[in-house]
Every structure is written in C-alpha cells, then in structure tokens.
C-alpha cells in the first residue's frame, strides 16, 4: 500500500478543516479528490507531504509513519512530488535547469546525470525542444508540463496534483491532462484534486468526495458519476454537469 491515512484531523485555530479522514491508496492507484470549494481537498493533499502538520491522526507512506516525530520531513517530500495550480518555475533558470536543480541540490546528482534524466523527462512531456528557453517564453500549458517534469526529476513514488489545470486557458488543459494520463498508465501512484470530470471518470480508479472535511464518498468513477450515494455529491454533480 502506498498511502494509509488514519483518522486525520487538521484545524486552523477554531476552524476544523479535516475531521477524521481514513483511507488507503494502493501502489499504482489513481485517486481523484472532488468536492466543494473549502471542503479541505488542498489541506488533505498538503498533509500527505507534510506541507501542513496534521492536528491528529496518522499518515503512512510506503509503510513508514510520516507523522511520527522521528520522520525526516525532507525525505518524505522528496518521495512525494507535488504539482500546484501555479507552476512556480524558477524564472531566472532555463527549462532544463529548472528540471535539473533539485536532484543536483538535494540529492547530489551529478550535472551530467541530472541533464540526462532531465532531457528524458522533457521528452516525455513533449518539451525537448524548449530545454534552453526561459519559463517566460512558454505558454501556461507548457509551464505546467515543465513543472511536472521537474517534480518527476526527484523520482518520487507518489505524485500529488492540486488543480493542475485550473489556471490554464481551456485549449491548454488537454496537453497537461494527457501528460498526467501517461503518468497514470506508467503505474505512478497519484492523488489528483481536479474539476476535470472527464479526466476523473476516465483515468481515476476511485473518486474520493470530500464534504466539510469528511470523506463523504469513496466510489469507482462509473458508480460515482451515475449513482452518487450521498446527497451532497448528488447536488455537487447536478451543479457542475
Ligand atoms: P479546498 O481545497 O477544498 O477548497 P482548502 O483545504 O484549501 O479547501 O481549505 C479548507 C478550509 O481551510 C477553508 O475554509 C480555508 O479557508 C481554510 N484554510 C486553508 N488553509 C488555511 C490556513 N493556512 N490557515 C487558515 N485557514 C486555512
Ligand atoms: Mg484547494
């Protein structure tokens, strides 16, 4: 099992954002996290790579309790890649340097090796030809594909995506979803917060529906989209489909 979450709570002051989430994600599984704005989707993802410290509960990654005090948080973050809505590429570095940076800095990978791995990844996301340009010269979709390649350069076991296409112009959404679909097919364990229901339906193995910090439903997509179990999910789907 890649990820196990046990009774996860997260509060910000008096605001109880996550209220007892328990779930497991198998190795190679793709899970889509869906739910109303403010339901805790981002907070849930951020807890999984310890960008947020849970208030209580446990999270295990590859069998290791990452919520334990003894855990090396930087190691966990290396193993759990994250892609955000806003790409946050380093503007003063070329595309290939963006991808090479973390392995060289954090893992002491040689420049030669980092470049080789980086070029392979740029090829994978269809941006080999852009290796030597600066982020400002890229479209939003291209920037997000670089951000994915940069994250993959650390060779993570798990990838988290938080609305990776929400900031993109509509015509660029597909090129990013295609890269994510390829990644899913390659066997990557993925948790994806998304409003792209087509992607969720086609690519995800499970839909996790969050409502007010609780896991209101956990169903295979074909079931979730045709026969949602909880009323809140029904209402949510009625509003967006
Ligand atoms: P979602 O991603 O589902 O829209 P979030 O996880 O971003 O929801 O947020 C859930 C709730 O937690 C929201 O009410 C949000 O304002 C609040 N929240 C998120 N992060 C913080 C923070 N760092 N400090 C205070 N409140 C936060
Ligand atoms: Mg969010």
Automatic annotation (TrEMBL):
Residues 3-237 form the ABC transporter domain. InterPro entries: AAA+_ATPase, ABC_ATPase_HisP-typ, ABC_transporter-like_ATP-bd, ABC_transporter-like_CS, MetN_ABC_transporter-like, P-loop_NTPase. SUPFAM superfamilies: P-loop containing nucleoside triphosphate hydrolases (SSF52540). SMART domains: AAA (SM00382). Pfam families: ABC_tran. Transmembrane segments: none annotated. One of its GO terms (molecular function) is ATP binding. This is Amino acid ABC transporter ATP-binding protein. It comes from Floridaenema fluviatile BLCC-F154.
